[in-house]
Design brief:
heterodimer, A: mainly beta, five-stranded antiparallel β-sheet, B: mainly beta, four-stranded antiparallel β-sheet
């Protein structure tokens, strides 16, 4: 059974700092990994999708990497801003236990302090 | 933002009553999903659909049923609501099942008393 872990559960940083969020998964047989942000009381907003054949994806100040062999992904946020405050979730789509099986981590709650 | 709406957005009901949640999309995406989000558990898949009248179970499907009679609508029904089904329910869509981004709706907060 795939398990997805995100550590730390919460993180507080001063504005302008570069930061890394971590996501680890136990089963490396995956199709892709997706990073989301969730604002309080809102749905999930997709940030980046990395296919299993890719090593990284970039969008603006965000860069996500994937290392399937070690079961890890990182989300790098450059020059953090207060507007980046949210909960960040990673989700792994596996290819065992059902084609549509997506396993979510429980998230890292980020607070960027002005 | 992807055109996904959920209704109702909030609902309070009593144990034993039937409840139906609706997800509506304007993107003509083939795949639709129902998740629930609970503290400490993250999001868990309830059911999904890969086309009109084509549905399958997710990991927490007990007590839930779904229907999809049109591409744009995916209904989640709690036949007899229980307090353990108090949760936030999210609908998601994707164009291709395994290789495409999932887009999420705004969620429905359901409280079962």
């Amino acid at each position: 059974k795939q398990e997805v872990t995100q550590i730390p559960a919460a993180l507080s940083v001063p504005e302008g700092e570069n930061l890394v969020l971590n996501c680890s998964f136990t089963d490396s047989a995956i199709y892709n990994l997706q990073w989301f942000r969730q604002d309080p009381g809102k749905g999930l907003t997709s940030l980046l999708l990395i296919q299993s054949s890719q090593r990284e994806q970039t969008s603006g100040r965000l860069n996500a990497s994937l290392d399937k062999s070690s079961g890890r992904s990182t989300l790098y946020i450059a020059a953090s801003q207060p507007g980046d405050s949210a909960t960040y979730l990673c989700a792994v789509r596996g290819n065992s236990g059902g084609y549509q099986k997506v396993t979510f981590g429980t998230g890292t709650k980020l607070q960027v302090i002005p | 933002d992807a055109g996904i709406t959920q209704s109702p957005r909030h609902k309070v009901t009593e144990t034993g009553t039937p409840v139906t949640l609706r997800c509506h999309q304007t993107e003509n995406h083939r795949y639709m999903y129902w998740y629930r989000q609970d503290p400490g558990h993250g999001l868990r898949l309830i059911h999904y659909s890969y086309g009109v009248k084509d549905t399958d179970k997710g990991e927490v499907s007990d007590g839930y049923s779904v229907s999809r009679s049109k591409t744009e609508d995916f209904l989640l029904t709690l036949e007899s609501a229980t307090s353990s089904q108090t949760s936030v329910y999210f609908c998601a869509i994707s164009d291709e099942g395994g290789f495409d981004t999932q887009y999420f709706g705004p969620g429905t907060r359901l409280t079962v008393l």
